[in-house]
Amino acid sequence: MTKQIHLAAHFPGVNNTTVWSDPGAGSHIEFDSFKRFAQIAERGKFDFLFLAEGLRLREQNGKIYDLDVVGRPDTFTILAALAAVTEHLGLTGTINSTFNEPYDVARQFASLDHLSGGRAAWNVVTSWDAFTGENFRRGGFLPQDQRYERARTFLQTATELWDSWSPTDLLANPDSGQFVARPDAGAYGHHDDHFDISGRFNVPSPPQGRPVIFQAGDSHDGREFAASSADAIFSRHGTLEDGKAFYEDVKGRLAKYGRRRSDLLILPAATFVLGDTDAEAQDKAHEVRRQQVSGQTAIRFLEQLWNRDLSHYDPDGPLPQEDPDLGEHTIARGRASVRRHDDILATARAWREKAEAEHLSIRELIIEVTARQNFIGSPQTIAETINDYVQQDASDGFILVPHITPDGLGPFVDRVVPLLQERGVFRTDYESTTLRDNLGLRPQTEQGTVDGVAS
């Protein structure tokens, strides 16, 4: 059976993927940028807009990382404002389960779901470092083996709060015309090692029952958390073979939680570069990469692996002969990319071998090893490639990250989406008013449960 493709749009945080030197690169704090981006995505009939979140400005060599200075407004504030200027687009926010509390988060998402008419979604993430924890009252962090346990029970608690109201708990008073609640509406109590709370939840049942739940972790614990409790997983596996392996691994975990393969969508992040021809797109992609990775940025990336100050190195020269420092990582604080190298010395050795074999400078190497361009080509090539990935079960769709915001999504909407529609693999209009229905997901209450958590 031919699968339907799901598409979403990611408004990136302050980062090195945006080509800031391009005149089309807009503000990442002014509301007009978010509004234009969301309305382009909705014009393309995308499922949802996705916002990342950062709870602390990152540092490198003891200074604020130069690509992270601007920051971004609060996620809920942006999404609530976008609910007023869109009609169908889902609104997905990344909210941390390590440094927030279930009552606040459940209340905010229930409110957003009401304000948007059933379009709210939560990307549940954890935080791994004390650096971020310094911004919060606890002043610390959870060990890695506890952060997913807290996330699991956090989501369980939030679910209990959403479920504390039933659709029939809010009644119209015929005398006053006001709505009144049944006496036991919103009553809850949750008691475990992480949360000891009870009371009355003061937001009636959201239109979707519960917001759509996303998860973005790639570890074993992250995959299990997604299989047990999420509606979609935000994957970073962008190649066909890696995508197929990840897809089968995660989908294969669902049955033990009483879930169908269709109950969890797998949506990798993907960048794109369009040209009139494949050759033109390749040339453009090369230029984009050079704009994304300046000499200074290349040195910063190399320092994140080497864990040393390399500011005295020439980015157009060879890699350092000295090995990375394996001690405590103090060069790049708050950057998740530091943790993605399981064997730092092996990675450094592989980078040296590649640089020597291909005669690459530091900057040229970093351009190669940090490449994030998944789809490069003409509109026809990109439409065909995306469809192949989905039909071959490497993904259920993609979350697109343009290198120019807010208007960089426009060419994809205008030139690629019509080709997917002609193939009959992408909608020509929204099927429903709620995000859950547009994603083709069953209500959580119809799915299996684990430890009392709807999954």
UniProtKB/TrEMBL annotation:
Keyword set, alphabetical order: Flavoprotein, FMN, Monooxygenase, Oxidoreductase
NCBIfam families: FMN_nitrolo
The family this protein is said to belong to: Belongs to the NtaA/SnaA/DszA monooxygenase family.
Domain Luciferase-like: 19-391
GO MF annotations, alphabetized: monooxygenase activity
UniProt superkingdom: Bacteria
The keyword Oxidoreductase belongs to this UniProt entry's keyword annotation: yes
The protein, known as: NtaA/DmoA family FMN-dependent monooxygenase
Record's keyword annotation contains Flavoprotein: yes
Pfam family, one: Bac_luciferase
Family matches, as PANTHER family: ALKANESULFONATE MONOOXYGENASE-RELATED (PTHR30011), C2H2 FINGER DOMAIN TRANSCRIPTION FACTOR (EUROFUNG)-RELATED (PTHR30011:SF16)
Endpoints of the signal sequence: none
Source organism (scientific name): Branchiibius cervicis
EC number: 1.14.-.-
